[in-house]
Design a protein that fits this description.
The complex is a heterodimer of chains A (116) and B (114).
Chain A: E1 5-7, E2 10-13, E3 19-24, E4 31-38, E5 42-50, E6 53-57, E7 64-68, E8 74-78, E9 87-94, E10 106-107, E11 111-115
Parallel strand pairs in A: 2-11
Antiparallel strand pairs in A: 1-3, 3-8, 4-5, 4-9, 5-6, 7-8, 9-10, 9-11
Chain B: E1 3-5, E2 10-14, E3 19-21, E4 24-26, E5 32-39, E6 46-52, E7 60-61, E8 64-69, E9 74-79, E10 88-96, E11 102-104, E12 108-113
Parallel strand pairs in B: 2-12
Antiparallel strand pairs in B: 1-4, 3-9, 5-6, 5-10, 7-8, 8-9, 10-11, 10-12
Classes of the chains: A mainly beta (116), B mainly beta (114).
């Protein structure tokens, strides 16, 4: 158990709908990352939040957005869903230290999204 | 942009034997971190081992060790005394020291034969 929690575990919805995925980081971790794992694209970094602020952006679609709340949990919002958005969505967290200290990301169990 | 290549889509090993998974990466940076993650059938991503690029000594974690060749941009994972529980997808990952955008390879599926 990594200490990162994600809800729900599974989500089935229809095209055009909107869903929200939730992530709670490990105790003490200030950074939250979102990844998408699909069969054709592999594991892709979507976005990072650090202590409530957006820190880095990857291959995140405009239909997707995220935020990190004062209690450090994060939500990933996916809207106008398409069939191709079906994937496993991972949240990871890390301390995010400065300097040369390695900043390891620990992954949650993922949310499997199926768009029908 | 940094890319990570795992040239072995599938590997198999006999229980108790040793197997090496390959990973190469492309970067112009000198300061970065490398990771191996394991993804068993449960789909959980589990950190196996990590290496700082500025450290010359290869990282080891029990039965897992790496061969880090910075000049060759190679970062292979050696699993000794393979166990049935080692069967999983293994992903190599690169992260720059300047940002937290972690790049993953396509993965290697490891099968362990009893």
């Amino acid at each position: 158990d990594s200490g990162v929690t994600q809800t729900p575990k599974h989500l089935i919805t229809a095209t055009g709908q909107r869903v929200t995925l939730r992530c709670s980081p490990r105790s003490g971790d200030l950074s939250v990352y979102w990844y998408q794992q699909s069969l054709d694209q592999g594991l892709q970094f979507l976005i990072q939040y650090y202590n409530g602020e957006e820190r880095a952006k990857g291959n995140i679609l405009e239909r997707f957005s995220a935020q990190q709340f004062p209690d450090l949990h994060s939500e990933l919002n996916l809207s106008s869903l398409e069939l191709g958005d079906s994937a496993l969505y991972f949240c990871a967290s890390s301390v995010t230290t400065s300097g040369r200290a390695i900043d390891t990301q620990y992954f949650g169990p993922g949310t499997r999204l199926t768009v029908l | 942009a940094q890319t990570v290549t795992q040239s072995q889509p599938e590997m198999s090993v006999q229980e108790a034997e040793t197997v090496t998974l390959s990973c190469t990466y492309d970067t112009s940076e000198s300061d970065y971190y490398l990771f191996w993650y394991k993804q068993p059938p449960s789909r959980q991503m589990i950190l196996v081992i990590r290496q700082e690029a500025y450290k010359q000594q290869n990282a080891t974690e029990n039965r897992f060790s790496v061969n880090f060749q910075k000049a060759a941009k190679s970062f292979s994972l050696k699993i000794s005394d393979s166990q049935l529980g080692d069967a999983a997808m293994y992903f190599c990952a690169y992260r720059s020291a300047d940002n937290n955008d972690m790049r993953f390879g396509a993965g290697t599926r490891l099968t362990v034969k009893p």
